[in-house]
Backbone:
């Protein structure tokens, strides 16, 4: 399987603070050096850990497509960043024995970008478009006939001399990935035959992912060191791999490469201020202000944003989702509330 990258970029956030967070699930510069992340990606469905329900659905569809010697139906994968959507697209191409061309919506802004990509596709190949909710309406319209009838309707010329030309395309599979499925227009959404959601990973699956990556990096984790990293990675393989790399740095300097145990993991992640639930300094400041200044809330996001000196959009998209997910925070019409669980964590109970 070959990977063809076209304007590949996960790294499109402009928020500098977000970039520096070790527990940010988006791809940071370090991960997105394609070689680095790619070498860790599982290559087959068998190697792909977790997400068993989604895997079962895709496995049947792949087998059926191979049996009928047809292109796989178009697939929409959605869920938070870092859970394996890109990886799954590459796995699907590998299982189907075809090339995967990788792109992302922001790189397909002009109609000619998407036309070029579609016209270069070979029969049954896979086209992966990340952040598909960000496609421009011109690109989206071109996709409609391409997806449904394998045809590109191009308008050539302007005004009275404008003509439409239809170009036939080979059968292909579009794999779209998004963190925001609700932002995809319904005509586009309806053209995907298979839609699957990625969930946060279970602890045992994350442990397996950490152990797999450790073996790639030639590290020996002993006792429950892998479980300790799994506990702190916010259910996200990308963060698990990143934390493991930081632990490796620490072990290298401390000359403990052959003895990475729970205490070494703890020491190294403490240095990065990632606590035993995967919360970092920003998460904890958010919770402490809520607790100490506003008696646990309810308090409005703008007030919290002013108190923390952080942009409210960053808080809403980067800090709150995980705190909500683990039940430390509640969003109510009257504002944010710190839960009892969140309080206990803050007080170290
Ligand atoms: P997304 O496209 O959802 O943002 P990626 O597919 O880029 O996420 O995955 C991020 C990282 O996590 C990759 O380096 C990949 O190797 C790793 N990863 C994701 N899912 C799995 C999995 N199920 N098993 C092992 N590693 C995984």
Residues:
């Amino acid at each position: 399987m070959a990977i063809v990258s076209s304007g590949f970029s996960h790294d499109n956030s402009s928020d500098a603070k977000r970039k520096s967070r070790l527990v940010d699930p988006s791809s940071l510069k370090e991960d997105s050096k394609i070689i680095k992340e790619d070498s860790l990606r599982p290559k087959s469905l068998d190697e792909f850990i977790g997400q068993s329900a989604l895997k079962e659905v895709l496995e049947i569809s792949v087998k059926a497509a191979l049996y009928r010697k047809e292109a796989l139906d178009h697939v929409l994968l959605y869920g938070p960043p870092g859970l394996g959507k890109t990886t799954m697209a590459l796995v699907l191409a590998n299982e189907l024995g075809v090339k995967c061309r990788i792109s992302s919506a922001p790189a397909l802004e002009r109609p000619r970008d998407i036309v070029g990509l579609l016209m270069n596709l070979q029969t049954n190949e896979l086209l992966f478009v990340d952040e598909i909710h960000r496609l421009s309406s011109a690109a989206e319209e071109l996709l409609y006939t391409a997806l449904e009838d394998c045809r590109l309707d191009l308008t050539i010329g302007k005004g009275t001399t404008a003509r439409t030309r239809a170009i036939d395309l080979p059968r292909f599979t579009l794999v779209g990935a998004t963190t925001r499925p609700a932002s995809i227009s319904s005509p586009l959404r309806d053209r995907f035959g298979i839609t699957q959601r990625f969930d946060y990973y279970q602890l045992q699956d994350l442990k397996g992912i950490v152990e797999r990556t450790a073996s790639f990096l030639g590290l020996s984790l002993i006792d429950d060191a892998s479980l300790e990293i799994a506990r702190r990675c916010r259910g996200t393989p990308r963060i698990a791999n990143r934390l493991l790399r930081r632990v490796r740095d620490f072990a290298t300097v401390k000359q403990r490469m052959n003895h990475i145990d729970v205490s070494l993991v703890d020491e190294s992640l403490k240095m990065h201020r990632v606590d035993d639930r995967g919360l970092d300094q920003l998460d904890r400041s958010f919770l402490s202000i809520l607790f100490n200044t506003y008696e646990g809330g309810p308090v409005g996001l703008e007030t919290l944003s002013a108190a923390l000196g952080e942009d409210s959009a960053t808080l809403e998209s980067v800090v709150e989702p995980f705190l909500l997910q683990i039940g430390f925070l509640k969003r109510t019409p009257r504002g944010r509330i710190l839960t009892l669980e969140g309080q206990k964590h803050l007080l170290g109970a």
Summary: Confidence is low (pLDDT under 50) at residues 5-15. The pocket of adenosine-5'-diphosphate is lined by residues 37, 40-42, 48-50, 81-87, 177, 209, 237-238, 241 (CB under 6 Å). Strands lie at 3-5, 75-78, 100-104, 126-130, 151-156, 163-168, 173-178, 194-197, 329-332, 335-338. The two ends are 51 Å apart (CA to CA).
